[in-house]
């Protein structure tokens, strides 16, 4: 299932960028293929997560609505009023924390939420977080991705994809880049 989802991710990247296999001009109708591929990809990923955590397919539909992820870093501010996050899709080498920000509706406290992080298309299990939801039914949330134990730990360069599952169903995903070290 993971391999099938990875293949669909690759196809979707080809549709988005125009580069990859199969060549975009060989795809009969990308406008029809893209939503079907996204739906199938979500089903495959949700099934894989549900089987891993419960041993059975996911049940029912998730009522939760998660807005598209925004990514940002927090500029240094004084401790009394932390600075607003600076939103971007790409961050320079040396970044030690990226915030995953989103709005949500129809969540329920106690729902199981899983965050998965992929770096250059490979899941990094050390980033995986399973937690019960405790932020209420609706609002805004920030989840930090950080290795900031000290100033020496920074995010490795690469393409990061964050997925959020609610009750074993893929609810949202988004990507950002950490740029190469150009020193």
Topology, pairings included?
Elements lengths: L1 H16 L12 H25 L10 E2 L3 E5 L10 E3 L2 E2 L5 E9 L6 E8 L2 E2 L5 E4 L6 E8 L11 E9 L2 E10 L5
Parallel strand pairs: 4-11
Antiparallel strand pairs: 1-5, 2-3, 2-5, 5-9, 6-7, 6-8, 6-10, 10-11
Helix pairs in contact: 1-2
How far apart lie the N and C ends?
A: 40 Å
Hey, roughly how much beta strand do the residues contain?
25-35%
Count of separate structural domains: 2
Number-wise, the strands total 11
Radius of gyration: 18 Å
CATH architecture of the largest domain: Sandwich
**Overall morphology:** globular
Give a short account of the largest sheet.
6 strands, mixed
Specify the CATH class of the largest domain.
Mainly Beta
The residue ranges in which pLDDT falls below 50 over 5 or more consecutive positions are none
Task: Kindly state the percentage of residues in helix.
Answer: 10-25%
Structural class: alpha+beta
Q: What is the CATH topology descriptor of the largest domain?
A: Immunoglobulin-like
Arithmetic mean of pLDDT: 88
Which H/E pattern describes the elements? HHEEEEEEEEEEE
In DSSP terms (H or I, runs of 4 or more residues), the helix count works out at 2
Describe this structure in words.
It is a single chain. This protein has two helices and eleven strands. The chain has helices at residues 2-17, 30-54, and strands spanning 65-66, 70-74, 85-87, 90-91, 97-105, 112-119, 122-123, 129-132, 139-146, 158-166, 169-178. Strand 6 and strand 7 form a beta hairpin. The strands form two sheets. Strands 4, 6, 7, 8, 10 and 11 form a six-stranded mixed beta sheet that branches. Strands 1, 2, 3, 5 and 9 form a five-stranded antiparallel beta sheet that branches. The protein has 183 residues and is α+β, with helices and mostly antiparallel strands. It folds into two domains: 1-59, no CATH class; 60-183, Immunoglobulin-like (Sandwich). It is globular and about 55 Å long.
């Amino acid at each position: 299932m993971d391999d099938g989802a990875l293949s669909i991710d690759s196809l979707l990247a080809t549709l988005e960028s125009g580069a990859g296999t199969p060549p975009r001009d060989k795809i009969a109708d990308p406008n029809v293929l893209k939503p079907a591929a996204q739906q199938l990809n979500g089903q495959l990923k949700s099934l894989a997560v549900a089987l891993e955590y419960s041993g059975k397919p996911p049940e029912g539909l998730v009522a939760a609505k998660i807005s598209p992820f925004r990514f940002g870093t927090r500029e240094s501010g004084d401790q009394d009023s932390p600075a607003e996050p600076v939103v971007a899709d790409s961050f320079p080498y040396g970044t030690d924390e990226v915030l995953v920000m989103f709005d949500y509706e129809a969540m329920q406290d106690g729902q199981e939420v899983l965050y998965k992080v992929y770096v250059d298309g490979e899941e990094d299990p050390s980033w995986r977080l399973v937690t019960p939801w405790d932020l209420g039914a609706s609002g805004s949330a920030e989840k930090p991705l950080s290795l900031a134990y000290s100033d020496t730990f920074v995010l490795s360069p690469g393409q990061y994809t964050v997925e959020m599952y609610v009750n074993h169903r893929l609810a949202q995903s988004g990507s950002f880049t950490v740029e190469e070290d150009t020193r």
